[in-house]
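From the pipeline queue, job 12 of 40. The input is one protein chain; the requested action is below.

Action: predict structure.
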Amino acid sequence: MADDLCSFTKDFFIIKAPKKSPLVWRMVVLVFAMVCGVYICSICLKQISTSTKTRFSDIQVIEKPCPEPNIEPWEIPYVHYPKPKTYSRAECACNPVRYFAILSMQRSGSGWFETLLNNHTNISSNGEIFSVKVRRSNISTIVETLDKLYNLDWVSSASKNECTAAVGLKWMLNQGLLQHHEQIVEYFRTRGVSAIFLFRRNLLRRMISVLANQYDRNAKLLNGTHKSHVHSSHEAEILAKYKPTINSTLLIRDLRQVEETTNKALEYFKSTRHIVLYYEDIVKNREKLMDVQDFLKVPQRELKSRQVRIHKGSLSNQIENWNDVKKTLNGTKYESFLRADD
């Protein structure tokens, strides 16, 4: 009887407090596992996506470095790889570029010399950029202009763009060059700019050219047009007909002043890598142009110019008051100018 009672009691409690079904627990665990799995997968996908974007971004930013050029160690500061903002150098991006500046004085043959350089496939000389006063108003505007030029972003008819191997300008000594010489020398040093000095030995012939050019600015002898340089013998003959009168009283002083300016420029820029040329030497010996190409480290080419000389022949036929000039210079260190021909 007692055993039956105990058995009844056990059955009673089993009925009142049944165990939860294993199927329910399995479903709960399964749902929880699925939620965790989805969450973990979403995190992984985000990380993969971020990593992929980062790798793509890195690939876009990293550029293939240019191979080291086969040059002497001293040349390294003078070799550059500009990255223009206005266009891509494309396949020429790894072609090294040299920076230069032609330092000269008006009517010293610099225009003719520059046309010779621009006849070279790989040389771009961009003219008298600083003839515009606002560009040389202070050292900041000068540096800004030079940076644009040497970055190959200066647009002119001389620009060779992609495959330029040497880029520069023609800079007259009276165009802010001597006024800001200390800062410009430092700029040339830090940016690796080389200087090409071009002067004229016969300062009397230069003076004739200066005076004749000044006269033609007003007279405009060529069909009402002023031309500093000509491309035909006919035009040259018309301009050469004018014979200037030289102030013999101020002649010695003026020649000395030009000489001093030239010497001052050579002294100021003596620490700059440079070459000194004279117009007369180039006229007589075209091999001098090979020296220039070697200086700029460009392939040697035969260089030609369409410009025609205006004043040539005996000086006695080019100066109105020849006898006064001759008398003034005889017995001075400038006497040789009377006889020398270009």
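Job complete. The chain has a mean pLDDT of 87.
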